[in-house]
């Protein structure tokens, strides 16, 4: 096999891999305190020593999209849902260090005990998709649905990739959280209860699931734009729709285009195109296989030796999978670098800084959800956990 071909760097991607505040991020603030320089050759050893000193008091969670330099210190790796479950299963750990993004750390805080502290090594590690639905925008949307006379027939549902405030909104309105693995099951549950769903915040996961897996037409979906009066929709459109999709998307998966798919097929007619359901509908329609991060990992593990795969998901994960399966030709679907820039803010200096602060008895960057909000969000999460 030829080994993993690195996509070309773009200036934006390289900039985003550096430090500094990002005005577009969910929590656009720098890490407080003295960060060790990235060039410090002792960083790996410092992380190892701090982790050893903290022992069972510490549990480190690492999302699949994290850098290799960070993921090697994770006690468990997984997607956001698996990591939240793992946090909940470790009541003895005093500190949960979450190498992921803000909404994931919030979910971990909601599912862990009041005594446990969830730490996010860089508070600027937000999620651009979660940022696309704020609590006040969603309140306005619900008021629009009420004014249009449809709210009574709508069940709100949110993807895990949303803030605790949005999960709490959904919990208060008898709705449910979903992940990319159980979106269809959650939608089935929703349609047993109501005639319509308000799907937050990822339009692509919502559209791809109802059209590909539930037989809906594209015309059954409408897109609510929070920046337009009434979401840019007429009362009739709201009444006729089966699903009201929020106008949000993932800035990483949204980059893959039909051109990328066609180019890969031109280069290698035998290639299998494997993408995440956060990709645009036309990309998903053109792909051979579609599934969650855990599905992608399994599909590549089970693939025939010698088979070729072009994968449309975050670059750190695709590169890691290519390195883990050198007997298969695994490439990245885009021509250029495509990291989750906010996820990449958690680097080795931030991890070392957070761990050494804990060793010193200081708990930095605690993510704490207000108890009332946490209780409402937990209802929506528990309904997901109870799905058949
Ligand atoms: S990959 Fe997309 S959805 Fe996931 S954390 Fe990054 S921006 Fe958010």
Report on the architecture of this protein.
It is an enzyme of class 2 (transferase). Keywords: 4Fe-4S, Cytoplasm, Iron, Iron-sulfur, Metal-binding, Pyridine nucleotide biosynthesis, Transferase. Its main location: cytoplasm. The protein has 388 residues and is α/β, with parallel strands linked by helices. It folds into three domains: 31-126 and 342-370, NadA-like (Rossmann fold); 130-250, Rossmann fold (3-Layer(aba) Sandwich); 253-332, 3-Layer(aba) Sandwich (Rossmann fold), CATH 3.40.50. Helix content is 41%, strand content 14%. The chain has a five-stranded parallel sheet with strand order 6-5-7-9-8, sandwiched between helices. It has a four-stranded parallel sheet with strand order 2-1-3-4, with helices on both faces. α2 (43-54) packs parallel to α16 (348-359), α4 packs parallel to α5 and α8 (164-172) crosses α17. The longest helix has 15 residues, at 371-385. Residues 11-29 have low confidence and may be disordered. Iron/sulfur cluster is lined by residues 65, 101, 127-129, 161, 250-252, 314, 340, 342-343.
Which secondary-structure class do the elements indicate?
alpha/beta
CATH topology name of the largest domain, in short, is Rossmann fold
N- to C-terminal distance: 42 Å
Work out the helix count. Answer: 17
Measured as a percent range, the helix fraction is 40-55%
Catalytic activity: iminosuccinate + dihydroxyacetone phosphate = quinolinate + phosphate + 2 H2O + H(+)
Cofactor: [4Fe-4S] cluster
EC number: 2.5.1.72
Binding site for [4Fe-4S] cluster: 127, 250, 340
